[in-house]
């Protein structure tokens, strides 16, 4: 086996890095995941993740985790409303399609992976600051002062990965869209009108070249975002203090003055706001490299407007793990190169679909027209 007596270092303990480690451990590979979070109880920001049966669930099945995933995930309905809070469309997956695209909270997904990895696979409080190649191995330096040696390094540490520079000089490019993300911990009490409108599922509103999307988490909290187009200069010049909820609420109220008070109730109830400029990493100009590669957002970060990013990342983990353990390649680098060739093709297609969705939902098109275009 290619990885016999080899040490694999995965940088980043998100879903993609963790499932990659699980797939390698099924083949008895020596692997550790180095994660910057303090411990497994660290709260992960962001909305729920929908894992598709024709993408991410394939990787979960190969990892022997599909039944476990169904225990943690839930079928989710979706409502579309206009800016007055009128429901335009409502869908819920039918009996035969309940688990085609179920939603799961990010912390629950992490918990599931950790429960199925060998003890001490994840090394917490380990933020990579640099790495250097020494002969046929890599010396990794972490912010906590520790160092590690690895024979293979896989960067799975997200859109701002510092492993990426060892593979390509290409950097993520701003797409022209910004997201203001909000989280409401107790919506039943703090924004009851919006909670009644959204119910127990997702809700979206497309209007005035803005996109609003909310998700209900397993314990009832809401995560939502408002996305809109702005030039890149706005990111540094907006002057907004995201530590001041009052200031962000005032900005959103001015941004969406014609929207129903139901939305403004939600904004006022928000416990935490985050600014997220949307970026995409073009899959181009990868330099020759040896025994180091990228998976997930580290390889092909893209906005969330198609709901496909994490699914593509899970496929990355599956394809790379299979190449490294199936005995069909003569050496590690050949296995990596074959994975990268496949990944470039399907990830580029996903980025193109996402770009089309991003343009459409921030255009003057109405909900019905956008739905028609998707068909």
CATH topology term of the largest domain: FAD/NAD(P)-binding domain
Question: Can you give the mean pLDDT?
Answer: 96
Structural classification: alpha/beta
CATH homolog superfamily of the largest domain: FAD/NAD(P)-binding domain
C-alpha geometry: globular
Domain unit count: 2
Strand content: 15-25%
| Share in helix | 25-40%
Q: Give the distance, in angstroms, between the N- and C-terminal Cα atoms.
A: 45 Å
| H and E string | EHEEHHEEEHEEEEEEHHEEEHHHEEHHHH
Overall strand count: 17
Give me the CATH architecture of the largest domain, please.
3-Layer(bba) Sandwich
Low-confidence spans: pLDDT under 50, at least 5 residues? none
CATH class of the largest domain: Alpha Beta
Structural Rg:
21 Å
Widest sheet: strand ordering: 5-4-13-14-15-12-16
Largest sheet: 7 strands, mixed
Give me the number of helical elements.
13
Question: Could you explain how this protein is built, in words?
Answer:
- It is built from 13 helices and 17 strands.
- Strand 9 (137-142) and strand 10 (147-150) form a beta hairpin.
- It folds into two domains: 7-75 and 100-171 and 281-361, FAD/NAD(P)-binding domain (3-Layer(bba) Sandwich), CATH 3.50.50; 175-279, D-Amino Acid Oxidase, Chain A, domain 2 (2-Layer Sandwich), CATH 3.30.9.30.
- It has helices spanning 15-25, 56-62, 66-72, 106-115, 187-190, 192-198, 233-237, 245-255, 261-269, 297-300, 309-325, 332-361, 367-374, and strands spanning 7-11, 30-34, 49-50, 78-81, 87-91, 103-104, 122-123, 128-134, 137-142, 147-150, 152-155, 173-184, 202-207, 210-216, 222-229, 272-280, 292-294.
- The strands form four sheets. Strands 5-4-13-14-15-12-16 form a seven-stranded mixed sheet, with helices on both faces. Strands 7-2-1-11-17 form a five-stranded parallel sheet.
- Helix content is 35%, strand content 24%.
């Amino acid at each position: 086996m290619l990885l016999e007596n080899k040490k694999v270092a995965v940088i980043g303990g998100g879903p993609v890095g963790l499932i990659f480690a699980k797939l390698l451990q099924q083949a008895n590979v020596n692997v550790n995941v180095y994660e910057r979070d303090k411990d497994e109880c660290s709260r992960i920001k962001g909305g729920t993740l929908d894992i598709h049966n024709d993408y991410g669930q394939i990787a979960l099945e190969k990892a022997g985790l599909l039944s476990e995933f169904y225990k943690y995930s839930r079928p989710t309905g979706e409502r579309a409303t206009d800016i007055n809070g009128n429901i335009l469309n409502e869908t819920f997956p039918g009996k035969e399609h309940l688990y085609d695209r179920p939603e799961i909270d990010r912390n629950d997904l992490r918990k599931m992976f950790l429960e199925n990895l060998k003890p001490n696979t994840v090394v917490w409080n380990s933020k990579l600051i640099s790495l250097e190649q020494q002969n046929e191995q890599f010396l990794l330096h972490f912010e906590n002062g520790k160092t590690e040696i690895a024979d293979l390094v896989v960067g799975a540490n997200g859109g701002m990965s510092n492993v990426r520079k060892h593979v390509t000089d290409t950097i993520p490019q701003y797409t022209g869209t910004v997201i203001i993300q909000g989280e409401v911990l107790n919506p039943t009490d703090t924004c009851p009108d919006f909670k009644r409108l959204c119910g127990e599922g997702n809700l979206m509103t497309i209007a005035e070249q803005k996109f609003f999307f909310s998700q209900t988490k397993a314990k009832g909290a809401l995560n939502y975002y408002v996305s809109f187009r702005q030039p890149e200069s706005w990111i540094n010049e907006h002057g907004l203090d995201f530590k001041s909820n009052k200031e962000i609420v005032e900005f959103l109220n001015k941004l969406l003055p014609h929207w129903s008070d139901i939305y403004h109730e939600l904004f006022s109830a928000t416990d935490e706001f985050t600014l997220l400029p949307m970026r995409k990493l073009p899959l181009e100009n990868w330099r020759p490299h040896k025994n180091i590669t990228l998976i997930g957002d580290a390889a092909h970060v893209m906005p969330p407007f198609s709901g496909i990013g994490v699914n593509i990342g899970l496929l990355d983990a599956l394809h790379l793990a299979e190449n490294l353990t199936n005995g069909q390649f003569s050496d590690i680098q050949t296995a990596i190169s074959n994975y990268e060739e496949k990944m470039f093709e399907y990830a580029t297609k996903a980025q193109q679909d996402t770009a089309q969705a991003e343009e459409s939902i921030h255009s003057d098109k109405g909900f019905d027209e956008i739905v028609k275009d998707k068909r």
